[in-house]
Amino acid sequence: MFASLAVFTLLALKACTVSAFPAYQSLAGLTREELDAAVASVNFVPPPPPPGPLSDQSAKLVNDAAHPYQPLQPGDQRGPCPALNTLASHGYLPRNGVATPVQLVTAVQEGFNLENSFARFLVYSTFLVNGNPITNLMSIGDKTSATGQDPPKPATVAGLDTHNNCEGDTSMTRADSFFGDNHSFNETRFQNLVKYSQKYGAGKYNYTVAAQLRKFLIEDSIQNNPQFTLVSPRLFTAFAESVFPINFFIDGRDTSGQLDLDVARSFFQNMTFPPDFFRRSGAVSNVGQDVVTNLMPNFKPGYNARGVNTFTVDPTSATLTQPCVRYYNFVNNNIKGLYPNPTGVLKQALNINLQYLYEATVAAGDNCTQVFPYGH
Ligand code: HEM
Ligand SMILES: *[C@@H]1O[C@H](CO)[C@@H](O)[C@H](O)[C@H]1NC(C)=O
Ligand SMILES: *[C@@H]1O[C@H](CO)[C@@H](O)[C@H](O)[C@H]1NC(C)=O
Ligand SMILES: *[C@@H]1O[C@H](CO)[C@@H](O)[C@H](O)[C@H]1NC(C)=O
Ligand SMILES: *[C@@H]1O[C@H](CO)[C@@H](O)[C@H](O)[C@H]1NC(C)=O
Ligand SMILES: *[C@@H]1O[C@H](CO)[C@@H](O)[C@H](O)[C@H]1NC(C)=O
């Protein structure tokens, strides 16, 4: 399954030859692309499997002495996810914001008690689109050279800021990509979350607020964003993220289900755990999401087809109750689109990561049939 030692040595030799010459020349009868592939290959280590669930899922202090907040250094990556930003700022992830899938699964479990199969699906689906399969690194923010040499286009390896995979429209605290910055904290949008928390949550963010705010954000984007779209896979993250602040940003010793707005701001804007913060007790994922979907029983995935207020249902998109359609379309369209004809170690790396993605659907109990876009 993995590159043999002989192949590895051959590639290493090629790489050494290459590095002795100027980068812009085509050498040794190889095209630039072939040389690039050879150089990339030497760095290939088959990605190890993700960790299983935490053995101890109790609430505990996570803003501890071993994980102090440190301000960003120039070049550090932060992006649209307040949780990953926070984990990087406290050293649960590499502080430069460039991480492996194993580091990501480990960090979201340790720091927030995110349930294992959910964490694995989220990580491998975003990694396959936004990460570098050869170097096994992904930026939690923008595209960066720190993830190493890119595989051939149309692959992008552009980090979590990439629009329309997991990042997408109708975020609570980030603007729609049509309006420009799709990943930085946006005070106007946070103030809207505050307004909804005052109106429906007596000044706290709870499931009732989450539902009302999600409904508003979708209607608002339909009315104001000519390029609005909310289809799978973004559809799934949009609804899950609405309840994540309640499930994960409330201190583990507090079981009220009411999120204080200063605590919310600490995560969303400052990318830091509040002082003395305990993670929740017991691993969960998107509990409470039914409260949100129940407020919009007729909502179907779709997009503005001809400018604002032209919402059109997309029958090809998975709905929230079709996790296997989500998985099939994701692999056959999204991944195949980025990697139409991978070869060599790139194909191996993709197949291994696709295997880990499929295993996450099995662990989640989805009972999907495995698909093999690049053969067995
Ligand atoms: C497991 C790995 C994770 C990945 C790869 C990931 C990735 C992302 C991405 C790409 C976004 C942007 C979506 C958008 O456009 O709004 C996002 C948003 C978000 N994430 Fe994560 N996330 C992960 C785990 C978590 C965890 C554990 C939490 C909670 C503790 C969390 C909380 C949130 C919230 C609340 C948002 C919404 C931000 C907003 O709407 O303003 N995420 N995440
Ligand atoms: C913040 O969000 C609002 C509302 O979505 C948008 O009009 C504004 O352009 C955004 N601001 C920035 C700086 O992106
Ligand atoms: C989202 O933000 C990133 C980083 O600024 C930018 O490169 C990208 O073009 C934006 N996406 C869209 C669709 O505008
Ligand atoms: C949210 O807060 C409001 C106001 O206190 C309350 O009426 C509602 O029941 C709360 N919802 C949940 C799910 O806690
Ligand atoms: C966010 O950081 C700023 C600057 O360090 C600080 O003044 C503010 O109190 C912080 N707010 C929260 C809610 O953490
Ligand atoms: C899983 O799917 C197979 C075939 O699609 C079906 O026969 C089986 O009953 C399903 N199992 C569960 C537990 O849903």
UniProtKB/TrEMBL annotation:
<keyword id="KW-0732">Signal</keyword>
<keyword id="KW-0560">Oxidoreductase</keyword>
<feature type="signal peptide">
    <location>
        <begin position="1"/>
        <end position="20"/>
    </location>
</feature>
<comment type="similarity">
    <text>Belongs to the chloroperoxidase family.</text>
</comment>
<keyword id="KW-0349">Heme</keyword>
<feature type="domain" description="Heme haloperoxidase family profile">
    <location>
        <begin position="65"/>
        <end position="293"/>
    </location>
</feature>
<dbReference type="InterPro" id="IPR000028">
    <property type="entry name" value="Chloroperoxidase"/>
</dbReference>
<dbReference type="GO" id="GO:0046872">
    <property type="term" value="F:metal ion binding"/>
</dbReference>
<keyword id="KW-0479">Metal-binding</keyword>
<dbReference type="GO" id="GO:0004601">
    <property type="term" value="F:peroxidase activity"/>
</dbReference>
<protein>
    <recommendedName>
        <fullName>Heme haloperoxidase family profile domain-containing protein</fullName>
    </recommendedName>
</protein>
<keyword id="KW-0408">Iron</keyword>
<dbReference type="Pfam" id="PF01328">
    <property type="entry name" value="Peroxidase_2"/>
</dbReference>
<keyword id="KW-0575">Peroxidase</keyword>
<dbReference type="InterPro" id="IPR036851">
    <property type="entry name" value="Chloroperoxidase-like_sf"/>
</dbReference>
